[in-house]
Amino acid sequence: ILKFLGAISVDLGKDRIKPYLPTILTPLYRELNSNYAEQDPTLKNLSQEIIEFLKKLVGLEAFSLAFSSVQKQANQKRAMRKKQRALQTVANPDIAARRKLKRHKNKAETRKRKIESLRPMYKAKRHRSHTLKDMAMVE
C-alpha cells in the first residue's frame, strides 16, 4: 500500500496531489510512529523515503501544514480513545475489572517467559489448559 501511495503521488504531480496530501500522509505517519514489537523496519524506511519525496514534490510549507494536520488528528484520536477507556471504567466497572485481571494474567505470563529465556534451566509453573473459560476470565 505504501508503494501504491508513492506511485500515486508521482503520477498525480505537484499541483494535483495537494488536496490528497493528508489522506496519503495518514498511513505513512502511522507507520513512522508505531511502536509495536513485530514492526518491519523496511516499512518504516519505505514510509520515510516516501515522506522525503513528498517534501521535495510539494514543498516544505505545504507538506508541513498537511503533516501537522495529520499529527493533530492522530493525537486527537489517541486522546479520545484514552478518554473513552477512562469513562468505561467508571460506567462499567465489571468490564474494567475483567480487563484488569486479563492484563495482570498476561503480565505474569510475560514475566515467566522472560525468566525462562534468561535462565533456560528454570521452568516456571503454568496452567495446564488454555481453554475458552481460562481466556474469558469469567470469574
From TrEMBL:
Q: Which residues belong to any copy of the U3 small nucleolar RNA-associated protein 20 C-terminal domain? A: 1-116
Q: Which InterPro entries match?
A: SSU_processome_comp_20 (IPR052575), UTP20_C (IPR057525)
Pfam families noted in UniProt: UTP20_C (PF23099)
Q: Superkingdom of this entry's organism?
A: Eukaryota
A single GO CC term, please? small-subunit processome
What is the protein name stated in its UniProt record?
Answer: UTP20 protein
By which gene is this protein encoded?
A: Utp20
